[in-house]
Amino acid sequence: MLKFFKNQWQQRDRQRAKAKTQHPDMLQFLGAHPPSSSTSALASRYLVLDLEMTGLDAKVDSILSAGWVLIEQGQVLLSTAQHHYVQQQQASVNLDQSAPIHNIHHKHLASGIALEAVLGALLRDLQDHILVVHHAPLDRAFLDKACLSEYGVRLYTPVIDTLQVERKKLLIHGTLEGQSLRLNDCRQRYNLPNYKAHNAVIDAIATAELWLAQLASTQTQPHTKPVPVSYFLS
What we know:
single chain, RNaseH_sf, DNA polymerase-3 subunit epsilon, nucleic acid binding, 3'-5' exonuclease activity
C-alpha cells in the first residue's frame, strides 16, 4: 500500500515539474509514462548509472563524468553503454582531492561535453527505464542539483539502490553486522569478478551485473511467483 501511495506522489510531482520547466528534454522525459511498479522485476527495463564527482557533497562538488548501460530482458546490453566527461573550466573545479581516486584530470574535462548534453542523453535513455544505482542518495543528490541547474526541476524517476537491496537481504538473513556494502564487496558475495573501480561506465556495468545477480537470488525456485519491481524501489 505504501508503494502505491509513493507511486501516486511521484506522478503528482512529475506533473508539477512539467508545469515548471520549459526545456524540451525534460518535458519529453516528464511526458513519457514511467515503467509500472507492478511489473515483474525480471521483466522490467533498467538504466544503470554511475557518476564520478569531485567529492561527496552535492552542495559544493561537481559531476565530472557519467556512465550508464541498459538492462533489457534480463541482459546487460553492452552496446548501449555510454561514458561522458563533463566539460569544466580548469579554474572552476579543483581536482586535487579527487584525481588520485578516479584518475580524471583537466585534459579529460577539456575534451568533455556540456552538462546539459550529458543530461539530455541520459533522459532520452531513461524515460522508459527504471534507474539503478549503487548508493542512491549520493547520485540522486547530484542529479537533482544538475537538473535544477539546467531545467529548473528535480529528477523525478523511480530508483533502485543495489546497496539497499543488499543491505535488506543481509538484514533478513541476520548476517548484516560487519559486512561491507561497497560495490566490489557486494559483487564478491555473488562470485562476480573484481573490476577496476572509479571509472563511471565500468562501475555502471559492475552495478548492472550485481543487480541481475541480486534479482536471480530472489527467484531461486522455478515456480516462484515473480517479484514485482515495487519490492525493490527506494
